[in-house]
Design a protein that fits this description.
Layout (H helix, E strand, L loop, with lengths): L1 E4 L11 H9 L2 E4 L2 H10 L6 E3 L5 H12 L4 E4 L12 H9 L4 E4 L4 H7 L9 E5 L4 H12 L5 E5 L4 H11 L3 E7 L7 E5 L1 H9 L7 E7 L9 E6 L5 H16 L4 E6 L9 H9 L14 H6 L2 E4 L2 H10 L7 E3 H5 L14 H25 L1
Parallel strand pairs: 1-4, 1-5, 2-3, 2-4, 6-7, 11-12, 11-13, 13-14
Antiparallel strand pairs: 7-10, 8-9, 8-10
């Protein structure tokens, strides 16, 4: 039998009666750090053979499986929290399952749940990312992808890198509200809250120590001062046009004071596709005369929000106009429909244009409805 035993993340009293009973009843204990686990065992007067475990050392995995196969009860501990949750444990659990060995989880305190519970955000759904990669570019891409879901993000961070993370947030996600939970359940427990620019000076002027859990929620989508939106696709003859004129129709029906326009990244002198015109007409948009517009600096400057049809288009615009990067999003991302792209139906059948418009329509409806509620 293999037991995954949750242990305190700080306060040594945060352990369940079942966890204590399990540790007293087992034959062997494998742990992340023998020194830290020995302190816990000594506190509860538990004397058992104690061995170090690592997912990266195959011999330790094999040793656990061998001992269980011989009829011994083995417990796996980490330095705090639950094995396999941004801690060692995955390799032996996988091996045990593959060999049909029974595995039981003995629950305990979780830094993820503690931080989410006291974050102030709705905890009914959230995303847990564990430790982020160290590359700034990978951190930016990961956060950008997951912020698109509109859910709080929980992650772990090292005290040596927390300032760098907040600097990235201040530069690329200034409207992300940050909750830093430090040393939870310990005597020096601390909670730091605010927007990146607000807390950056606080944490740069002091030494940050201890275990850190961070909760983030990008509140940029909750701004109420939008007065103009620009839709962008490649040539400004189909997708951005459908978004543009469908949005105009909805705005007019709701009697909203919101300007919309559209442009293309590589505009050619092409007329709007007949399929686009037919689909718009079918959805209540009257005849109009559209001339493709180039997405230039003037277009970028006049709009409060730029919504592209694809991630590639978004990245191109950010490359051309880095000073406007913070207001460039993909249509699906901003509407809360995920991080995908609006398929390009150019030159394809009417049915494929209709499928593309279905996603455009849903996204535009979501955005306009959200703005109307806040205005």
């Amino acid at each position: 039998m293999l037991y995954l035993v949750g242990t305190p993340i700080g306060n040594i009293k945060d352990i369940t009666l079942r966890a204590i009973e399990t540790l007293k009843d087992c034959d062997l204990i494998f742990c992340e750090d023998t020194r830290r686990s020995l302190n816990l065992l000594n506190h509860y007067q538990i004397k058992k053979p104690l061995y170090r475990y690592s997912d990266h050392i195959k011999e330790t995995v094999n040793n656990i499986i061998k001992n269980i196969s011989e009829g011994k009860k083995v417990a796996l501990l980490t330095d705090g929290g639950m094995p396999n949750i941004s801690d060692p444990g995955f390799a032996v659990v996988k091996a045990a399952i593959e060999k049909g060995i029974k595995v039981e989880v003995v629950g305990g305190v979780s830094a993820v749940i503690n931080a989410m519970a006291l974050s102030g955000f709705d905890g009914s759904s959230f995303v847990f990312l564990g430790f982020l990669e160290r590359s700034d570019s990978r951190i930016i891409k990961t956060l950008e992808t997951h912020f698109a879901f509109g859910l709080p993000i929980v992650l772990y961070e090292s005290p040596n890198r927390i300032v760098n993370l907040v600097e990235i947030l201040a530069k690329y996600f200034p409207n992300a509200y940050v909750v830093i939970a430090r040393e939870m359940t310990k005597i020096y427990e601390e909670w730091i809250r605010g927007y990146p620019s607000e807390i950056l000076d606080k944490i740069k002027k002091r030494e940050i120590k201890g275990e850190i859990t961070v909760v983030l929620k990008n509140l940029r989508d909750e701004r109420t001062d939008l007065s103009s939106i620009g839709f962008v696709c490649t040539g400004n003859t189909c997708r951005s046009v459908m978004a543009h004129y469908y949005a105009l129709k909805i705005i007019s029906e709701k009697k909203m004071d919101l300007n919309v326009s559209s442009a293309g990244i590589l505009v050619e002198e092409n007329a709007v596709c007949d399929h686009s015109l037919e689909i718009l007409k079918k959805n209540g948009v009257e005849d109009f005369n559209h001339i493709p517009v180039q997405a230039d600096r003037k277009f970028m400057e006049k709009n409060d929000l730029i919504l592209t049809m694809t991630k590639k288009q978004r990245n191109i615009l950010k490359g051309f106009f880095p000073e406007y990067a913070l207001k460039i999003r993909t249509l699906l991302e901003y509407s809360g429909l995920g991080s995908g792209d609006i398929y390009d139906p150019f030159g394809k059948s009417y049915m494929e244009y209709e499928l593309a418009f279905k996603n455009i329509k849903k996204a535009v409806d979501n955005i306009i409805e959200s703005i109307s509620k806040k205005s």
